[in-house]
Amino acid sequence: MKQRALFSAVLIGGLALTGCGSASEPGSSSSTGGSTDKLVVWDWKSGEENAAGYFEQAKADFAEKHPDVTVEFVAQPFDQYYTLLGTAIQAGEGPDVVMFNGGGQIRDRVDALLVLDDYVADDRERLAGWEAFSKDGEVFAAPLTLQGHPIYYNKALYEEAGLDPDNPPSTWEDFVAGCESIKTKTGAACIGLGNKEGYGIEFFLSAMGSAVLTPEEYDAWIAGDRDWSAPHVKQIFELWQTAGDTGLNNEGANSTAMFNDSFAIFQAGEAANIIGLMSDIGHWKDFNEFLEPDNVGVMPAPVVNQEATPSLPYDGGIGYAVMNWTPNPDLAADLVRSLTSSEALEAFYADAGAIVSDTTIDVSGAGPAVSTIVGELQNGKQALHVALSSQTLDLMHRLSQQLLSGSVTVDEAVEQLAASDEAG
């Protein structure tokens, strides 16, 4: 929590669930390490145009320290990324440095990773988001970005619907009432949702969780003490189902891809609200380009339980780790430090709009949406879904689709999730 208190007027983050480049199978010459004068990096970002400046800065920083070492970046498609990485881990060989999402994806694989605590000691105060890349008190990756789930809203649609664009609804009852006005007067959906991959429930759980759970229940969840049958936990999933049943979401949410079809719905003015990201996609900068900065609002989660205290859910977004089979861990760890250098992260923020992990970067000129997000970071808490294992998240994806389709009840869903969580 010390890192969270560092934020006042500087900072910001990312996670893009899009991939570029062609996949390389473990063991091929372009995907396998094994040389002390060459490092191979796997990620899903290095082929993206808006991250080019970031990688140029990181490469330059590393080359200045290690001019005789070659670094090869292999951009893997995100939808195959963890499958390919799993194959490499089973084989015990592959890249030297790898990108991870924070949370379950990295925690489930720490046996294959190098503990980085000694290597990144000098970066601990400058960077935030370490919790998402740690397990049992040890750090396994250095954070590039922060990832969170702000609720964005279209101020122009709010005004057209007769709502106050500068005072969004603070309770769920007022939010639902406003949705009716939006639908009647503008024809837009209330909530933009893409749940084809099941990711929508992750965003909903984390964005709405602090408006339903008490602070004590929230903290217990993050600490691993989760009671899936508790009334407030069930209420989150009931809200998810009810929002679908009552038409708050855009039509065909289960057949709409989150990346990037649901965000396109919001950007086109066809939905008044969306749970988005702080990162370099589905975020403030994308929305500013389509809706104009003054029309992009950020609201706290509307309160469902009066004993709840809404907060911005955020964690470390993406980060780089070192595989424990690398022949030169010192070099690989130094490359991770270059990939999280201030110069590189400042370029990532400037070009992609990423809310980066570096607390020294000034983002005060980025516009009102970013100012609101940064203002909420100090009191933000870890996202609820990040505390779950990847297996439980995969199950939750499927169950979320079934809840929207009506083929499973909330009681059945939470029972299955509880069993998975306990097994994981």
What are the salient characteristics of this protein?
424 residues; 40% helix; disordered N terminus; 2 domains; four-stranded mixed beta sheet; D-Maltodextrin-Binding Protein, domain 2; 15 helices
How many domains? The number is 2
Name of the CATH superfamily of the largest domain? Periplasmic binding protein-like II
Runs with pLDDT <50, length 5+? 1-34
Please work out how many helical segments DSSP would assign. Answer: 15
What does the radius of gyration come to? Answer: 21 Å
Strand order of the largest sheet: 2-1-3-13-6
What is the first-to-last residue Cα distance? Answer: 26 Å
CATH class wording of the largest domain: Alpha Beta
Described by strand count, sense and barrel closure, the largest sheet is: 5 strands, mixed
Q: What sequence of helices (H) and strands (E) makes up the elements? A: EHEHEHEEEEEHHEHHHHEHEEEHHHHH
Oligomer state equals single chain
Report the mean per-residue pLDDT as an integer. 91
Q: Please tally the β strands and state the result.
A: 13
| Helix percent band | 40-55%
Backbone shape: globular
Examine the secondary-structure arrangement and name the CATH architecture of the largest domain.
Answer: 3-Layer(aba) Sandwich
Question: What share of the residues does DSSP label as strand, in percent?
Answer: 5-15%
CATH third-tier fold name of the largest domain = D-Maltodextrin-Binding Protein, domain 2
- Going by helix content, strand content and strand pairing, the class is alpha/beta
